[in-house]
Write a structure and sequence with these properties.
- This protein has 5 helices and 31 strands.
- By secondary structure, it is mainly β.
- The protein has a single domain (27-653), classed as Beta Barrel (Maltoporin, Chain A).
- The strands form 4 sheets. It has a 22-stranded antiparallel β-barrel. A 4-stranded mixed β-sheet has the order 1-5-6-4. A two-stranded antiparallel sheet has the order 2-3.
- A hairpin with a 3-residue loop joins strand 17 (382-393) and strand 18 (397-408).
- The longest helix is centred in the first third of the chain and has 8 residues, at 65-72.
Length: 655
């Protein structure tokens, strides 16, 4: 049940965003607006302040463990659906033949979204488009989403926002889980999770998964519409808690995947040639988070991470062999008084790329940084927050990223406002190049850092069973990078002259009655950019102006759940598409159910019941190869059609 929400435009920095969920019901988000006696202690990690989610001046959308469990039954192999059903967040398919996708926040490009695990860049400074599809959600405790420029907290990779995947902590009892999932596309997922009891100083957890799918050509044109893949993942975690309040957390991860798309054996593209697509990926990572008290009110924090990822890509007859590396270290001090909390620290991050095939694109970016943050309660119902970060980028020079926020809570109302600025350091890996490879790209030259200003204003109301919210958001991007044609077989990256602007609004209405919850959402986005031909401005491609959703869910603990979802995606402008200039509006329907029998549950999920599929309207394959090397048009609608998945989940222990 995948919601494709909308994307915004942007005039000046004084527009504001009110960020509120627009997907399926999230208990953590609902409890934020309830009375104090009903509020669950949901502590946000992404802002580093240690506050409850309802006390944060920065709007943080929290997807709770309960909602994560629902999405595990739909896509146990990756987190794409989990994040896609959050208002203002859209998962955009970037390479249809490979299934690659990235996360767009409020109309901004997916490369601006920083993907973190427990606050660490374990998936690299810029997560690849396939990275989103290689992370199983089994051991996640919650997911935190910050929209808008978060460079003041996390540096140049967080220009559009942050998604922080928070690991599941061991409970009072040992726990084990096993899940088996089968799909109608000949896909299989097997995931296992185990944790010790958190009864002493030490505890641990470990999660692993095996995932595979056969490739399919749904319209019988010889081109793969859904890729085939085989993947395994494993991630052990070790937790320590000292008697004086000190804590430490160590994580290790490994992933190996082989993915195939392109033409089927014996079939060809319109030029009569075979064009296989494949990517072999291998990633290893390690991370450490620790804190310990210094005196009564000050706490020291240490974070560090290392990641290396090897790729072997095949684009037709071209083979590219490369490696991405990320090293990260940070130390900070945090303190708290009755009304004020503060944080100050230093950090350094190094991101490197090395290609054995195209060494002209090799780079190593080293970025030392200083950052500060403060939050102050002016009154019981009014909190102000400010943060700033100075980065000294080895390629793009010094950059200052400030952000200010306000929280006002009069009675049942909640008002948040936020203004922020951030930057992004360009790399060769825009969406088109990730899909087509480096063979036709000119070496980077003369690029400037991309700079964005974002704003938001969020107004929410909650009383009894009713919850409502309205969000306004906007952003201006200067020096946005775009891929331009040099000739019929060559492209280059250039900075756009002028502003890329986004303006938009999100509306959410939710009603709860006993075990039933009904949620309606609507997102409006107006995003424009300078026309590459100098003809004024044009709408940003692949950005629907209107999207809407309706979710109805019955859920009772220990018995099961039943839900139905409907999502509407309006037309969206398409460029360089020989078949049409605007995508057709479409409606997706989904139905899922789970029945629980003690420690065993059986689930079934029906996705895209109306069998909406882009190849029903046009071919995915172009009549000729594009200048950047791609053989397919952009994906503006689902490519996999109607899919059924179901399976069984076993839980032992854990309370």
């Amino acid at each position: 049940m995948l919601q494709l929400t909308t994307v915004p435009r942007t005039p000046l920095l004084i527009l504001a965003v009110v960020m509120v969920s627009a997907g399926s019901p999230s208990p953590a988000k609902a409890e934020e607006h309830s009375g104090e006696e009903e509020v669950e202690e949901v502590i946000v990690q992404a802002t580093r302040s240690g506050r409850r989610v309802q006390d944060e001046p920065i709007r943080v959308e929290v997807i709770s463990r309960e909602e994560i469990e629902e999405k595990i039954l739909m896509t146990p192999g990756n987190i794409a659906m989990l994040v896609a059903e959050t208002g203002g967040v859209r998962v955009q398919v970037t390479a249809p033949a490979m299934g690659a996708a990235n996360i767009r926040m409020q109309g901004m490009s997916g490369r601006y979204t920083q993907l973190l695990a427990d606050g660490l860049p374990l998936y690299g400074g810029q997560a690849s488009s396939l990275g989103l599809l290689q992370i199983p959600p089994t051991d996640l405790g919650q997911v935190e989403v910050i929209k808008g420029a978060a460079s003041a907290l996390y540096g140049p990779s967080a220009l559009g926002g942050v998604i922080n995947l928070v690991s599941r902590r061991p409970g009072a009892e040992p726990a084990q889980e096993l899940l088996l999932n089968l799909t109608s596309r000949n896909g299989q997922d097997l995931t296992a999770y185990a944790s010790s009891a958190n009864t002493g100083n030490w505890s641990y957890s470990v999660v692993g998964g095996l995932h595979r799918q056969s490739r399919h050509d749904l319209d019988d044109d010889g081109w793969v519409d859904t890729p085939g893949y085989e993947r395994w993942t494993v991630r052990p975690r070790l937790f320590w808690e000292g008697d004086d309040g000190s804590t430490a957390f160590l994580t290790l991860g490994a992933m190996d995947e082989e993915r195939q798309g392109g033409t089927l054996p014996g079939r060809t593209t319109p030029d009569g040639q075979t064009f296989p697509l494949s990517q072999d990926s291998r990633r290893y990572d390690a991370g450490l988070v620790a804190q310990f008290p210094i005196g009564e009110v000050v706490t020291a924090h240490i974070r560090g991470a290392a990641m290396t990822q090897d790729h072997v890509h095949r684009f037709g007859q071209d083979v590219e062999d490369d490696r991405h590396d990320t090293l990260f270290a940070e130390a900070s001090l945090a303190g708290r008084s009755t009304k004020t909390s503060w944080l100050a620290g230093v950090a350094i991050q190094s991101d490197g790329f090395e290609s054995k095939t195209f060494s002209a694109f090799d780079y190593t970016y080293t970025v030392p940084a200083l950052f500060v943050q403060a939050e102050h309660d002016l009154r019981e119902d009014l909190t102000l927050a400010g943060s700033a970060r100075w980065d000294d980028h080895s390629e793009y020079g010094s950059q200052l990223s400030p952000r200010v926020s306000m929280l006002y809570r009069p009675g049942p109302w909640t008002v948040r406002a936020s203004l922020g600025r951030g930057f992004y350091a360009p790399t060769p890996f825009v969406e088109e190049i990730e899909a087509a490879g480096l063979s036709r790209l000119d070496p980077l030259s003369g690029l400037k850092a991309e700079v964005a200003e974002t704003a938001s204003l969020d107004t929410g109301y909650s009383s009894g069973p009713i919850e409502a919210s309205l969000t306004l958001f906007g952003s201006n991007i200067r020096n946005a990078v775009r891929l331009d044609e040099v000739d019929a077989e060559q492209v280059r990256l250039v900075n756009i002259q002028g502003l890329t602007r986004t303006r938009g609004a999100e509306l959410l209405l939710r009603y709860r009655w006993e075990a039933f919850t009904v949620t309606g959402s609507y997102v409006y986005v107006d995003a424009t950019e300078p026309d590459p031909l100098g003809l004024g401005r044009r709408a940003v491609g692949l950005t629907p102006t209107h999207t809407a959703g309706m979710v109805a869910m019955w859920e009772e603990h220990g018995k099961g759940r039943l839900g139905i979802e409907a999502y509407y995606t309006g037309g969206q402008p398409l460029y360089d598409n020989p078949y049409r200039s605007k995508g057709r509006p479409y409606l997706e329907l989904g139905l899922m159910g789970e029945v629980i029998f003690g420690d065993v549950s059986v689930f079934l999920n029906l996705e895209n019941l109306l069998n909406v599929r882009q190849t029903k309207y046009d071919r995915m394959v172009r009549p000729g190869r594009a200048p950047d090397g791609q053989w397919t048009v952009d994906a503006w609608a689902p490519t996999e059609g109607f899919v059924v998945n179901g399976g069984v989940r076993l839980k032992f222990g854990g309370g």
